Amino acid sequence: MKNYKYRHISVLGKEIVSALVHEKCRLIVDCTLGGGGHSELLLSSLPEEACLIGIDQDPVALDAASARLSVFGSRFIPRLANFREIDKVIKEINEGAPDSILMDLGLSSGQLDNEMRGFSFQKDGPLDMRMSPNTRKTASDLVNSLSQIELEEIFRDYGEERYSRRIARSILEARYKKPITTTGELVNLIVDSVSGKRGKIHPATRVFQALRIAVNDEMGSLIEGLTKAIFSLNKWGVIAVISYHSLEDRIVKKEFMRLSGRCICPSGLPLCKCGRELLLELRSKKPVLSTENEIKSNPRARSAKLRVAMRIA
Ligand SMILES: C[S@@+](CC[C@H](N)C(=O)[O-])C[C@H]1O[C@@H](n2cnc3c(N)ncnc32)[C@H](O)[C@@H]1O
Fold this sequence. Notes:
Elements: H1 13-20, E1 27-30, H2 37-45, E2 51-56, H3 59-68, E3 76-80, H4 86-93, E4 100-104, H5 109-113, H6 139-145, H7 148-159, H8 164-177, H9 183-193, H10 205-215, H11 218-232, E5 238-243, H12 246-259, E6 280-282, H13 292-297, E7 305-311
Parallel strand pairs: 1-2, 1-4, 2-3, 4-5
Antiparallel strand pairs: 5-7, 6-7
Helix pairs in contact: 1-2, 7-8, 7-10, 8-9, 11-12
């Protein structure tokens, strides 16, 4: 993948540094290294003796970020892993419990811009969408093997796609004739099946998001990784999570609420018996959003929501 370049602009950079670089900070884990932009900002703001572990499941991203961050020498510790294994990574590196943890979810621009990765509906390429080469099934495997109901559920649950049934049916019809193997084929099929029903966004946006989430089990990784990350934190350690769609933000909000002692069970009572643990203190109830200025220079920031919490026990 020689043409692979990182042009990723980090979202909410200042807010991340001010949340995560605190007086006692000696070890940070960046669970989503990507282009290394946040890690670079953090390492530049930390004292000389502090280090940062950078995790990414994408070896291409890890290599590119490692080259960018090589100026920090042994202060930067790269690891190829899924952040759902953050506990194992921390144990293996043996530098103690982290004082800050960052999760900047989703894809980087470098991944999206490379048509060979299959994430973009704007560029023709193989229908892959795997962030990690160790992931067994590609988007093409799912599209060509799942039942109509399974596809419909993925498009509806992960993409909130209004025409999920119609699109799933078109996929089944098309794949009887020939397997769907490229992003271009899938885009044409979606556009044809919802013809005349264009909204504000491209008709393939939601299906592509849904397939990417399914291929990479993004919700499963977030649920498992987030809890493990919180439990790995040092006392007074801080966790910051940037999410880009409501499914992710809902998971983060619920877990932060649960572990900060706010009741999330249906009774809604402040002191009910839902078995919550008081582990976190929320920095604010509402998420931090990007400013108009940031959105102007980085449209990706438009949908970003940052939630920050501190480990108090
Ligand atoms: C939005 S980008 C991060 C950008 C980065 N913060 C920066 O400033 O350059 C998200 C990165 O997280 C990685 N990623 C997503 N889910 C992951 C997971 N479960 N485990 C490890 N890495 C993951 C992706 O491969 C991608 O490189």
